[in-house]
Amino acid sequence: MKAWIAFWSILAKDFRAYYLKPPNISWGLIFPLAWTGMFFIRSGAGLDSVPALLPGVIAVSVLFGTTSLLAVTVTFEKKGRSFERLLLAPIPLELLMLAKTGGAILFGIANAFVPVVFAAFLIDISAVNWTTLVPAIVLIAVSSTFLGLFIAVAVKEVFEAQTFSNFFRFPMIFLCGLFFPIEQLPVWLRPLSCALPLTYGADVLHGSIHRLPHMPLALDFGLLAAFCAVLFALSLRNIRRKWIT
Amino acid sequence: MTPDDGKTAIEVHGLAKRFGDVQAVAGIDFDVGAGELFGFLGPNGAGKSTTINMLTGLARPDAGTIRIAGIDCTKNPKAAQHLMGVVPDESNLYPELTGFENLCFCGALYGLAKQDREARARKLLDRFGLADAGGRKFGGYSRGMKRKLTIAAGIIHAPPILFLDEPTTGIDVASARQIRQLIADLNAGGTTIFLTTHYIEEAQRLCGRIAFIVKGRIVRIDTVEELMRRTDGRHVVQFAVSARATEVCEAIVAEWPNLHCQPVADGQIRVESPEPVRVGPLVRLLEDRGAEVSEARKLRPSLEDVFVEITGIEAGAMKQEKEKPRKGGGA
User: B63-68 and B8-19: which strand pairing?
Assistant: First the structure.
């Protein structure tokens, strides 16, 4: 019970201190809208292109929304030593890090629905399979957040976290099958696609919005969950190894 | 030396920690009794912060055991963390939260319910003279206010054991005095306090026992009274002279070889003797050598002298080093 009081307080504090700040709200709205507009204009196919673009824009919004903020909520607090307060608190590290990442996960999910709402005004989205889309968005948000956590824990400076995030984010966008089908990638790049969590998230998003997925849904969800577990476990190991020296 | 009250708050045996080639802490042993105010003194890099980090669960020892109120801190640091409050050497609260919000947040980290933590936060703001500033953001506080709020945050859950790392460094005299009084009051109320400070006079005034740590080893641990006993029968006179201090000292020692003379600053010398120092002949000698004596002051030996004698480190240098402004540091 006492640990849960700490959990909710950390989550609420991060929301008040970071996620509900006007710059982050505007980032959360403008960024997905900008991506949507950019791909919409680039496609040149008018409203017909929206269903094809929607999975990509959802995924990119989540990926950038979550990973960008972890650099602030974790790396910045570690550098300013306020993170020490959390490490000194008598709550399990796992729960502490779930509280620290919970805000980013919810922020990422909210980001994902910006292009969905935007699309609802432009096209008919009644055919969308929500029972697979929503869990996929949640798992993409969790895996992206844990990827951001893994990077945030690995570096010392906020700018390093941002730089390393880009090192992962941009190749992921182009290799996960969101905008270019994996089968059209050069053969030597395809194994890399298989090693990216977003590949499986993108597959479910495509399947939910406009066509059948390439892989069985259970495999997609299973692998996404496995990526979440591995990234979280690696981040905790790094925290124990590097921050509790 | 083990405290004689029978109850031990902190027990440390064979504690060691190495960072690469540097042996930061080299197998130290000490006990702190429940309700004791224990001073941990040493120069920068002596191993004080590493020791505190290991005691509070922020660092893992390479060897040794730590027991906090009987709980093995090396095996179960989270259980021990319930019992401790930690005030780090930097004021590391959240700049974007108000003073009141910071205190409530810190209370929540220890599982205090909303009503309880809010009541405690108001009480602490009052007690630390910050009631009017409680609604202002921590980032806008002065150094002294930041320090006070950081201490308040460390005790909001009323821990029986409090670790205070340099609580008065770099703050104004009035705030430092207020903090020292608060520390004394907390200890009088039964809180065990583990205090690191480079202000030796602060440790002398507040602490019951003191450990001196140098290069990762405890070189002396004793009560303040016992440490001060080393200075019994020592007589010290400090002179302000117009000539070069080293030359003046050489002249004095040449005339009275049983005296110990040491330049302490530009134009300042300190003469020590096991016998009472006769000032008249010394002044005459110095004036005969053309050195004008503007002041002669009898000094009562202090814990600082004991520290210098035991550690071989000039306390003044330690203080200056610690008070250097930190790059991008908080308060």
Answer: antiparallel
